[in-house]
Amino acid sequence: MILVTGAGGEIGQSLIAALAERGEELLAVDLRPLPNDTAALCAETITADICSAELHAQLRRKPIRTIFHLAAILSSQAEREPELAHRVNVEGTLLLLQTAHYLGKQHRAPVLFLFPSSIAVYGLPSREEKLRVGKVSEEQFLTPMTIYGASKLYCELLGQYYARYYRRLADEVESGWIDFRALRFPGLLSAFTRPTGGTSDYAPEMVHAAAEGKPYDCFVTPDTWLPFMAMPDAIRALLLLATAPAERLRRTAYNVTAFSVSAATIAELVAELFPGAQIQFRPDPRRQAIVDTWPADIDDSAARSDWDWAPEYDLQRTFTEYLAPNIARRYRLDC
Ligand code: NAD
Ligand code: SER
Predict the structure, then answer these.
(1) Which atom of ligand 2 is nearest to the CA of 148?
(2) Stated pTM of the model
(3) Fewer CB within 10 A of the end CB, N or C, for the chain?
């Protein structure tokens, strides 16, 4: 059985569809009830807080072998509610690692634990430095300025600790019951869901607003650069890493990306695909300050060499073959 937490979110809904297509038995957990079509693909759904003791007691009775732990508070919401973000992102992850460790011991087999981390773990010192350094590798600039980035970086280390060192001194036999693997995602672009609470959300928001014929105020400047990826590639990356042979993995956390693009170029592409799109740039200083510390691009060569990662959607293909047709269809149907 595969457990997906945060299953009702953007990644969760797409991941559940992909796992169901593979015939997997799925247990979905989210704070909110899942959309009906997602729930229908799961053997069981539980509506609960990832920090609830009752939930973990329930999970410990299930034959879970793999966990995709997606439940989290994203960066912009986390800055508004830092204590909530710490509770969900850090304490929720700690509780789930303890549950995974327990399940591994019970079944005498490691539990595979996939954790989506983020470019938010990086903290570039200035906008000038960000543009100067270009691609950032996994070990550089690990000084996040947001509670979200700090929580992601800490949870990567926590996962590594549980996988390699937890209780090793106390009992050698008990170590190694979690196979922890993390991905540092760039901003994600989904045609089928709308983001909430993130700081890379300006890109998908521009596209969805244009498709609906609504004006959009972009909250960053036109010359803001970030790396992005289309949702189908994000799901492929998660599934590729999940199935990669352990002996090939040289790291716990891998960068993955598809393309790097400025907000101005996104606005131009959106205007080409949806003539009449009304996009204005009205930067929000707080959100701009966050993206100014995130890298303009990331180096994903380790993922490419260790587990054959390669994106299938570049910038053009993401917009013309994935976003434009699917989003247009979605809003025509919704009207
Ligand atoms: P999302 O906000 O769409 O989904 C998160 C889900 O978690 C939501 O359905 C929410 O209800 C659930 N959740 C929140 N608090 C919870 C709690 N206390 N208990 C149980 N469930 C709770 O986000 P997403 O884009 O699907 O992201 C999923 C994961 O991927 C997150 O960990 C996020 O940090 C990470 N990630 C996302 C992006 C991106 O651009 N979307 C980039 C990098 C990393
Ligand atoms: N895309 C996410 C956010 O903006 C980063 O992980 O919060």
Answers:
(1) 7
(2) 0.96
(3) C
Task: Tell me how long the chain is.
Answer: 335
- Is the distance from CB of 16 to CB of 38 less than 8 angstroms? yes
Instruction: Give the pLDDT score at 335.
Output: 37
Give domain limits for the chain.
Answer: 72-334
For residue 187, the ligand 1 atom closest to its alpha carbon is 40
216 catalytic? Reply is no
pLDDT averaged over consecutive 10-residue blocks of the chain (335 residues)? 98 98 98 98 98 98 98 96 98 98 91 98 96 96 98 98 78 70 98 93 95 96 98 98 97 98 98 94 97 98 98 97 90 57
Ligand 1 pocket, 8 CB below 6 A? yes
Ligand 1 centroid, distance to 10 Cα (angstroms) = 7
pLDDT score for 16:
98
Q: What is the CATH number of domain 72-334?
A: 3.40.50.720
Query: What's residue 172's pLDDT?
Result: 52
Give residue 100 CA to ligand 1 midpoint distance, Å.
19
Three state DSSP letters for the chain:
CEEEECCCCHHHHHHHHHHHHCCCCEEEEECCCCCHHHHCCCCEEEECCCCCHHHHHHHCCCCCCEEEECCCCCHHHHHHCHHHHHHHHHHHHHHHHHHHHHHHHHHCCCEEEEEEEEHHHCCCCCHHHHHHHCEECCCCCCCCCCHHHHHHHHHHHHHHHHHHCCCCCCCHHHCCCEEEEEEEECEEECCCCCCCCCCCCHHHHHHHHHHHCCCEEECCCCCCEEEEEEHHHHHHHHHHHHHCCHHHCCCCEEECCCEEEEHHHHHHHHHHHCCCCCEEECCCHHHHHHHHHCCCEECCHHHHHHHCCCCCCCHHHHHHHHHHHHHHHHHHHHC
Residue 174 is predicted with a pLDDT of 55
Q: How far is the CA of 11 from the centre of ligand 2 (A)?
A: 12
